[in-house]
Amino acid sequence: MKRLASILVLLSGVFLLSMRPPSPSSYLIGDKAEDFNLQSTDGVMVSLASYPDVKGYLVVFTCNHCPYSQLYEQRIINLHKKFAPLGVPVVAINPNSPEIVPEDSFDNMKKRAEEKRYPFNYLQDREQAVYQKFGATRTPHVFLLDKDLYVRYIGAIDDNAEAPNLVKKRYVEDAVAALLNDDYPDVEFTRAIGCTIKKKMVAK
What we know:
The chain has a single domain, classed as Glutaredoxin (3-Layer(aba) Sandwich), CATH 3.40.30.10. The protein contains 5 helices and 9 strands, in the order H-E-E-E-H-E-H-E-H-E-E-E-H-E. A hairpin with a 4-residue loop joins strand 7 and strand 8. The chain is α+β, with helices and mostly antiparallel strands. A 7-stranded mixed beta sheet has the order 2-1-5-4-3-7-8, with helices on one face. Strands 6-9 form a two-stranded antiparallel sheet. The N and C termini lie far apart (51 Å).
C-alpha cells in the first residue's frame, strides 16, 4: 500500500507539472501580464493599452506557415468577430523567427493579413521576447487576460483542430463567456496543440 501511495503521489506531481507552462518565468493563471509594444501589419505600433474600454484580451500566438494555425485561422477570425464587439478583441502575435521560417517574415505577414482580411491586429514579436514572457510554446497558443491584464485562461482554442464540426469543448469561448459574466472559467488551462515556436539561435 505504501508503494502504491508513493506511485500515486509521484504521478499526481507529474500531472500537475504537465498542466503548467514549461518555464518558471512563464505566466500562470492569476499572474499579471506585462504590456508590450509590437508592430502590426498595418505599420503602427500596438500595445494592449491601445485598446480603450475593453473587458479583456485574447492574446493568440499564431503564424503563417503552421498547419495548425491555418486550421484555426478562421476560428480565430470568428472569435474576434464574436467577442470584440463585447469588449474582448483578439490580439494576434507571430512569435516565429523569419530567419528560421521565411514564410513568417513581416512582408508575408502583411500579405496573409490582407489576403485573409484579418479583422484583428496581427503583430510581429520581432525580438522574440513577448512570447517567452508569456510562456507560449506552440502556434496557436491562447492567453485570455482580463482588463487588468490578469491571466484567466491558457491553452488551446478547442478540442479538435482538424474538424471544427466535431468540436465538443470550446475552451476559449467558455473562458470568455465566464469573463464577461465576472466569473472564472471551469477549465483554466489546457495543453496547446500546434507547431513549436521557431526560435532564432543565438551564437555563443
